[in-house]
């Protein structure tokens, strides 16, 4: 099976629902939100930012493999693969950008 392209990209500003990453089926590309990577690095360090990227890729790869699967299933798969729940990154983002939202 082919592999998707992976990019760290600026996915734009976020509102209350942060976009951590996306899978673009047309381009077969996983894009991880560069602003979130930077926020995690600033709050929790480079190692955690790397772990976030791995977690986001695992999540989007699940969507790629199982297009009709639910968001919950994608979260569960990424948690099993990476040993971390994506909600911890959502908490970091909320804290980091509280003042700007
Ligand atoms: Zn998802």
What does this structure look like?
This protein has 101 residues and is α+β, with helices and mostly antiparallel strands. The protein is built from four helices and three strands. The chain has a three-stranded mixed sheet with strand order 1-3-2. Helix 1 packs antiparallel against helix 2 (46-65). The longest helix has 20 residues, at 46-65. The model has no long low-confidence stretch (mean pLDDT 88). The structure holds zinc ion (ZN). Zinc ion binds at residues 59, 63, 71, 74.
Helix count, DSSP H or I runs of 4 or more residues: 4
Shape call? globular
What order do the helices and strands follow? EEEHHHH
Radius of gyration: 13 Å
The CATH architecture comes to 2-Layer Sandwich
The CATH class is identified as Alpha Beta
- Derived structural class: alpha+beta
The tally of beta strands, per DSSP, is 3
Strand content: 5-15%
- How many domains? The number is 1
Q: Indicate the low-confidence ranges by residue numbers.
A: none
Indicate the mean pLDDT. Answer: 88
CATH superfamily label = Metalloproteases ("zincins"), catalytic domain
């Amino acid at each position: 099976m082919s592999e998707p392209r992976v990019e760290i990209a600026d996915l734009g500003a976020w509102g209350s629902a942060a976009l951590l990453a996306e899978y673009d089926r047309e381009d077969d590309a996983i894009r991880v939100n560069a602003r979130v990577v930077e926020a995690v690095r600033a709050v929790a360090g480079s190692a955690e930012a790397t772990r976030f990227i791995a977690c986001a890729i695992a999540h989007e790869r699940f969507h790629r493999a199982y297009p009709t699967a639910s968001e919950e299933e994608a979260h569960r798969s990424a948690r099993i693969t990476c040993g971390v729940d994506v909600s911890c990154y959502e908490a970091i983002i909320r804290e980091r950008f509280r003042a700007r939202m």
